[in-house]
Design goal:
With 315 residues, this protein is α+β, with helices and mostly antiparallel strands. It has eight helices and 17 strands. The longest helix has 24 residues. The chain is globular and about 60 Å long.
């Protein structure tokens, strides 16, 4: 199966290219962004050596649907999605922090908690909690926005303001938007029989106004549990049935990889790659509530170039 792991487009008016862990972003006329969701997959801030077929299409389409479904809460950067793997939108100056909101104690927060630490990003965590237990109320645990190859670092609200990374007025709005988006995402997830466990949001500014940018509520940026059986599993100290790429992290950890120096990524066989692709399709169909329709992948770069070029010529 074909997977898009590298792009090298030259769009009319192109002025800049940024290659992220998963997305390649092309700036056009210093005003628009053409964001290509590739099939690359990352874990522990490391891009894995093989792409996952259809992953980019799934992520782009999930993000597009949720951007549309939350546009009444905060303006977002999206203008259109001219290709299944591409969103075109407004260029904004991104804030140097990511807003992470957590409603349950799991993942990296649980790993930190197990070490006896009872504070994350300046937020106090109660004693006596169990893995996957809900916090009394959702908490915001920001991270710095790291450059490619570097790890995002936890940071507190106080540190963000003290370092002047975000103004007090803007940060107040970021927190407000973050919680309102999370509430909307939680409501939509509940309609699908899911629990939105945690997620991240990125924001930027354009002409003095804050916009939601990048992806939203995808399995790369979010963690979901199935509602059915959640309480029983928690009561029995069993792992939760979840929709996220945590299964990729767990496979890596089971094979001795956590992104630490000197560790090698385990072999990604065709069977492993196909299995991850199938899990992503499951994620898509559960999160969106629609059957996933596979696009033609015989020549992905040519398809993207054709669709994006036609769109840019129209606007």
């Amino acid at each position: 199966m074909n997977a898009l792991t590298k792009t090298n487009f030259q769009f009319e008016g192109q002025t800049k290219v940024y290659n992220g862990k998963v997305r390649d972003v092309y700036t056009v006329k210093n005003d628009l962004l053409v964001m290509v969701a590739t099939d690359r997959i990352s874990a522990f801030d490391v891009v894995l050596p093989k792409g996952i077929p259809y992953k980019g299409q799934m992520l782009n389409q999930i993000a597009a649907k949720f951007l549309d479904a939350t546009a009444d809460i905060v303006p977002n950067w999206k203008l259109d999605s001219p290709d299944p793997m591409v969103t075109v939108g407004l260029r904004c100056e991104g804030f140097p922090v990511e807003m992470i909101v957590r409603a349950y104690l799991c993942g990296s927060a649980w790993r930190t908690y197990q070490k006896g630490i009872r504070e994350i990003c300046g937020v106090k965590i109660p004693d006596g909690m169990r893995e996957n237990q809900a916090f009394p109320t959702p908490i915001i645990t920001p991270t710095t926005k790291a450059e490619l190859g570097l790890h995002d670092e936890d940071i507190s609200r106080e540190e963000i303001l003290a370092q002047g990374l975000v103004s007090p007025e803007d940060y107040e709005l970021l927190e407000k938007y973050t919680m309102e988006l999370f509430v909307r995402g939680t409501e939509i997830a509940a309609q699908r029989g899911l629990i939105l466990v945690d997620t991240k949001y990125e924001f930027g500014k354009r002409d003095g106004k804050i916009y939601l940018i990048d992806e939203i509520h995808t399995p790369d940026s979010s963690r979901y549990f199935y509602s059915e059986g959640y309480a029983e599993r928690l009561a029995n100290n069993e792992g939760q049935k979840q929709l996220s790429k945590e299964f990729v992290r767990e496979w890596l950890m089971d094979n001795g990889f956590q992104g630490k120096e000197g560790q090698q990524v385990p072999e990604m066989t065709d069977e492993i790659v196909a299995g991850i692709s199938e899990r992503y399709i499951e994620l898509y169909e559960n999160i969106v509530g629609e059957t996933f329709v596979k696009e033609d992948v015989s020549n992905i770069p040519a398809r993207i170039e054709r669709n994006v070029t036609a769109y840019l010529e129209k606007i």
